[in-house]
Amino acid sequence: MLYSKLFPKTIKETPKDASLTSHKLLYRGGFIRESAAGRYYLLPLGIRVHQKIQKIIKEEMDKTGAQEMVTPVLHPKELWKETNRTSSVGFELMSIKDRNEMEFVLGGTAEEMLVDLVRKFKLSYRDLPFNLYQFSTKFRDELRARGGLLRLREFMMKDAYSFDATEGDFKTEYEKMSKTYTEIFNRMGLKTIIVESDNGYIGGEYCHEFVVESEVGESRFLMTEDGSYAAHEDVAKFSLERKNVSEKEKPLEEVEAVRGTTMEDGVKLHNLPLWQQIKDVLFVDEKGRFILSIIRGDYDVNETKLLHLIKSYQLRHATEEEIREKIHSEPGFISPVGIKDIIEKDVELIIVADDSLRTVKNAYGGANKKHRDLLNMNIDRDYKADIEGDIALAREGDLAADGGGKLIAKKGIEVGNIFQLGFHYSSKMKGANYIDKDGKEKPYYMGCYGIGLARTLATVVEVYNDEKGIVWPESVAPYQVHLVGLDLSDKAVLEKAEQVYKILTSHGIEVLFDDRIEPSAGEKFADADLIGIPYRVVISKKTGAEIEVKKRSQKETEFKKLEDLVKSIKE
Amino acid sequence: MLYSKLFPKTIKETPKDASLTSHKLLYRGGFIRESAAGRYYLLPLGIRVHQKIQKIIKEEMDKTGAQEMVTPVLHPKELWKETNRTSSVGFELMSIKDRNEMEFVLGGTAEEMLVDLVRKFKLSYRDLPFNLYQFSTKFRDELRARGGLLRLREFMMKDAYSFDATEGDFKTEYEKMSKTYTEIFNRMGLKTIIVESDNGYIGGEYCHEFVVESEVGESRFLMTEDGSYAAHEDVAKFSLERKNVSEKEKPLEEVEAVRGTTMEDGVKLHNLPLWQQIKDVLFVDEKGRFILSIIRGDYDVNETKLLHLIKSYQLRHATEEEIREKIHSEPGFISPVGIKDIIEKDVELIIVADDSLRTVKNAYGGANKKHRDLLNMNIDRDYKADIEGDIALAREGDLAADGGGKLIAKKGIEVGNIFQLGFHYSSKMKGANYIDKDGKEKPYYMGCYGIGLARTLATVVEVYNDEKGIVWPESVAPYQVHLVGLDLSDKAVLEKAEQVYKILTSHGIEVLFDDRIEPSAGEKFADADLIGIPYRVVISKKTGAEIEVKKRSQKETEFKKLEDLVKSIKE
């Protein structure tokens, strides 16, 4: 490609709202432009990188035996109604009607579409397992888009869906996909950490994110020093420290407590440790139920864990008015003790106790009345929970649940994820069955596997850059060689440069040839550094019979024979 | 690929609504399935063909120097408002709002998006010309979809947009694109006819369709025997036959005419030739203007030509009530003579006369009153037109306007089109300029170029099939070799077949290996014929050291050495 003909050229300015390195460099280098917030044009340089990423994904997916196909972008909304996802998805779904008043959603993920396709066929156990994948545009009506490609409202996703007869077969596939993802990202120069995470709107029981550590990432996770455990902060488990469990239970006592409403106010007033206090957080879920979550004072409630325990998908904090008028308690003085006896008749209240309350005796806290506290509260004796379980937020420094030492807090960019779906979809959607050996219809066991291509592209730039620009790994670089012609007004030099361009391209090497006459050497080198192609080759008056080669990732310049460069690139 | 693992397998049934050969065969062969009307899944076999078509298009586009990129699928609606296309497009536009109430349209074509991108850059004459293209999903909210892939509501299109400084440069690009399109379709085995056509909702002054002749096509066009002229019936020009032009003009005369309202009723009553009668057709356009189109009785009005002349985009026939109450005339008795003197005051009436009225003297027709006719009407003397021009519909048998003999009516499938856009978009959209050598801002001269991939795929099947199934051309076949293993319960034969599979794939040959044990030879051969892969290779007890080869397009079976097959495929 001649740089003189390339649309567009680099520019020096950075968009006002650009804070991310990848956004700035991709913009300045001419890889991308914004259409509307979160919706980007991929320009000629940008789409070359995007296609190389796509090719790597395709090659690795094909190796596993997964089969490529593609679904329509518009999904019949009735399918999403079959699985109740029209109301439960975590991203705002965009809906549209056609001229015949048929309703569609713009595809965000395609589980329903795949099941609807597969159930059109009478499958037998012999047809299983299979894994179908596609590259297609996905839509997420995000509240806020980030600048650049890290969080988009519209992007190409590789999404795959596996269909197995048994959980055992599925686990083999899940493991295969996990290894394949690691290899895919490795090939692009990205080292990924496999992080247990929340399945959110997808459904199913477990899933993993592939995360590239980065300060600009939005995935917050906890990992042991030895790397044996990594989990998103939403789901991370840890080992509870046991406190005064051997202490004798003292009599429950109500006392005056003229204090503020914070945990610290309680600690100060009673001069007792924070961990001995009960933290009460009152939520309302999407069904209007009140959820009283209680936990040891030194821990925080993890809303994601709580949602899973109560099988809801949305929580909000109860208002002070609701606490007083519906619960007949008092903000800052809520207590599980006797609370079910004082609430309004029409109120449904569910008490969820964290496991940590089993590690403490003689706890203190509110008494459901202003300026009254209870001392020596003990679970079972003084209050009961409707549900007990793990609703605690893990923190840096906590001990990992299954060994591996202390948890360290990390941030990273989620570039891919894999989900166990189990029977979540096949049980909800009618006819999603195969005929087993025994002649009986059985639902298939499913999984799904996603990679966002544009985010992966931006992540490569976040990892591979320096103060001058991008430093593309060879596997995804838009071109392999950036040929810079200097002194091109000299006919002999121009001819030499054109010859080198011809020879390189004849060897199948992708070359961007800066054939412009006007710009100075400095401007051309700055452009080459910004665009970040792995090999910079200079032809000038000085280079004579050789060529000047510099790797973008190194400082040294070498004079070489052209054939030696060809050899080292082709290796 | 092992056929035993392929999703899905062939089936014998044909969908109830399938009338097109391509629909039936692609469905039965397992290439496609419908999601909703006009929205299809491309299954693993289908997407392989689709990708081969895409690769051919990409290779040929890249050869021309055009640069690939991609725009978002959702286009900000404000852009379409800039060019007034929200109201004027010929396909129903689908609109959608995001959670922030921003309006988008689902892209049908991307002229505005490309101009909006290009105007973000300060272009100089040095940056021109360039041509940007993309492969992306396009949406057309068609009133009716056809079964299969011939007319879809959602499909991948290759759309390209050229930006030139001058009309001369543009014409060079247009010619280049025309040749490229011919080559693209040739490589897929499709012989295309370049047909002048209507630019419709795209804008601009001229355009051409690339049409593959086919009985199931919806493009109706007229072509001379020698092929020197081909034009869509909407725009076809022809040479008007001169009638009684040398006759002396006789005095205008009003007579009683108790007759019906058809042209034939007039011919019978007056016993004069049809061509001497004036045909009056009254339309109402989208602005509410009445358009009286008049033409020689033996011709018909071409609404597309009429729309262009009056610069409107929609016509409907006036109702009988409107003719009586607004025009104060009479259905079946309308006449241009004196009509402007009798209409309602607030009515705007435009008289458009076809050129054919200059080829006849002393015409007859209605008198704007029931059962009254006029004889000896002559243009200029008795009536005047606001606009005169060509609004006549060409028919088979008419003589082409520029020689080449008689026109023949043909039908075909439009697989691609190229459009001159001129300044249509760059003049309407602010800032769509480049800085010329003289330092002045000038709008760029544009063109656009489209190919629908799925329709092209279906067209290949319409052209290449027989009573047993599809007969893919090698360039777009999903696999090159269909390896059929027979007697596979015999371990030696199975091993041999697996070895052949391995050797073929090691040579980079794409093989679909029917490794199933149960089905009979007949069933396997029927599947191979239906799927239509170019080479069928059989390994069985009988084949011994050789292999049995049959080309799908031929009847003969040959016994060959494996290496000879490899050679002939690689050639």
Automatic annotation (TrEMBL), chains A, B:
SUBUNIT field: Homodimer.
Presence of keyword Nucleotide-binding: yes
The reaction(s) this protein catalyses: tRNA(Pro) + L-proline + ATP = L-prolyl-tRNA(Pro) + AMP + diphosphate
Species of provenance: Candidatus Daviesbacteria bacterium GW2011_GWB1_36_5
Main location: cytoplasm
Protein name, UniProt field: Proline--tRNA ligase
The organism's taxonomic lineage, starting at the top: Bacteria, Candidatus Daviesiibacteriota
Compartment list: Cytoplasm
Molecular function per GO: aminoacyl-tRNA deacylase activity; ATP binding; proline-tRNA ligase activity
GO cellular component terms attached to this protein's record: cytosol
Enzyme class, first EC level, given as a word: ligase
InterPro entries: aa-tRNA-synt_IIb (IPR002314), aa-tRNA-synth_II (IPR006195), aa-tRNA-synth_II/BPL/LPL (IPR045864), Anticodon-bd (IPR004154), Anticodon-bd_dom_sf (IPR036621), Pro-tRNA-ligase_IIa (IPR002316), Pro-tRNA-synth_IIa_bac-type (IPR004500), Pro-tRNA_synthetase (IPR050062)
Keywords recorded for this protein, A-Z: Aminoacyl-tRNA synthetase, ATP-binding, Cytoplasm, Ligase, Nucleotide-binding, Protein biosynthesis
EC number: 6.1.1.15
One Pfam family in the UniProt entry: HGTP_anticodon
Superkingdom, natural source: Bacteria
Cited SUPFAM superfamilies: Class II aaRS ABD-related, Class II aaRS and biotin synthetases, YbaK/ProRS associated domain
Domain Aminoacyl-transfer RNA synthetases class-II family profile per the UniProt entry, residue ranges: 38-473
GO biological process: prolyl-tRNA aminoacylation
Gene3D superfamilies named in the record: Anticodon-binding domain, Bira Bifunctional Protein, Domain 2
